[in-house]
Design brief:
Blueprint: H1 4-7, H2 14-23, H3 25-35, H4 43-67, H5 73-95, H6 103-118, H7 122-134, H8 154-159, H9 162-168, H10 171-179, H11 182-192, H12 202-223, H13 226-252, H14 266-272, E1 276-277, H15 281-287, H16 293-298, H17 307-321, E2 327-328, H18 330-344, H19 346-351
Parallel strand pairs: 1-2
Length: 352
């Protein structure tokens, strides 16, 4: 992987950066992508995909009710963890207007998928994710690399105190165990955000969240004995968190971090901080198209089925420009991310 200091070869002024975005490298790529028809909506694809997820959810609920107070419910918990992961990917695509071009149907679908079915605030997540897209891997501006618990650069490690300092020493080993809490973390932060400006409709979103958890916990403790309900909850939420982490962690973790003062045009800012994951149709389905992270960041509203063709165009164009373009396999992407996490935690281990 290229060194960030090599990637940032020049520091253009803000005016030069804006001109480059508007009239040069990215605009040429955009013309090629639009000319290939890759920005058109794909209603049939999303009808089939979302229909399949809805059927899987309905089947999981039906199996849960039919099995009753049985340890066989753990198989249902595993299956529903995958379904919840797919619901998260559906909410993601709706938030980016990949499904609908208009805001209202996108928001309605997002509230249904995220708040009601998943138990996560659509408004809070969309606000957070929009800031991530604007400045991926930026130490000061990307909320996904803020040092809340983990540290993502040696600079963050040197400034870490409290829990991030304690966990940061061994964060690579703790990463996947911590992911088991990610589903609960998303729900906790969703309720917490209802009083913030990030959520524009707190009453509506809060009501949908309450309905979700009333049905979720009501179903668990009505159908299952308390012990089985708690085990089901742990398996379902734990695997759901690992699934989400396995989808989102390979995209940017371990890629160059952008520090305050570095100036990159839009194309380079997105390409240099993102990693694609190879793997064919199975990885496409597992990651919901986010394995084409570079193309997704360059064209966030591009429908998922167009990303594969966009990848070939983008990689060739980056080769023309001499812009590093990184892609690897799924396991290799996790190795790179974990290696980076271990490396940035080294100052904390050395200081202990």
């Amino acid at each position: 992987m290229a060194n960030p200091t090599v990637l940032v070869e020049s520091l253009p002024t803000p005016a030069q950066e804006k001109d480059r975005e508007r009239g040069s490298d990215f605009s040429e790529l955009s013309r090629r992508i639009a000319g290939a028809g890759l920005l058109r909506r794909r209603p049939l694809y999303y009808t089939v995909r979302f229909g399949a997820v809805a059927l899987a959810l309905a089947g999981g609920v039906a199996a849960f009710v039919a099995l009753g107070d049985s340890w066989s419910q753990l198989f249902v918990a595993v299956a529903l963890a995958v379904v919840f992961g797919q619901l998260g990917l559906a909410a993601h695509d709706l938030a980016h207007r990949q499904v609908f071009t208009r805001r209202r149907p996108s928001e309605a679908g997002g509230l249904l998928a995220a708040n009601l079915l998943l138990g996560m605030s659509y408004g809070w997540w969309m606000n957070k994710h929009t800031r991530h897209h604007a400045n991926p891997n930026h130490e000061e501006k990307d909320p996904d690399v803020s040092p809340d618990i983990l540290v993502w650069s040696r600079g963050q490690a040197s400034r870490a105190t409290g829990l991030p300092r304690f966990i940061g020493k061994h964060q690579a080993a703790l990463f996947f165990p911590l992911l088991t809490l990610e589903g609960l973390n998303l729900s906790f932060n969703s309720f917490k955000a209802l009083g913030s400006r990030a959520v524009k409709r707190p009453v509506l979103e809060g009501t949908l969240l309450v309905v979700h958890f009333a049905v979720y916990f009501g179903g668990l403790f009505t159908v299952l004995s308390p012990g089985k309900a708690l085990v089901f909850l742990a398996v379902h939420q734990g695997l759901f968190g690992i699934y989400l982490g396995s989808v989102f962690a390979p995209n940017h973790k371990g890629m160059p971090m952008i520090e305050e003062g570095m100036r990159l045009d839009f194309l380079r800012r997105q390409v240099l901080t993102s990693r694609n994951v190879r793997g064919g149709a199975l990885i496409d389905a597992f990651m919901g198209g986010l394995n084409y992270q570079i193309e997704h960041h360059l064209f966030p509203s591009m429908p998922t089925p167009a990303l594969g063709r966009a990848q070939a165009i983008t990689e060739a164009y980056c080769a023309e420009l001499g812009v590093p373009y990184h892609q690897t396999g799924l396991l290799a992407s996790h190795r790179e991310a974990l290696r980076h996490m271990r490396s940035v935690g080294e100052p904390l281990r050395a200081a202990s």
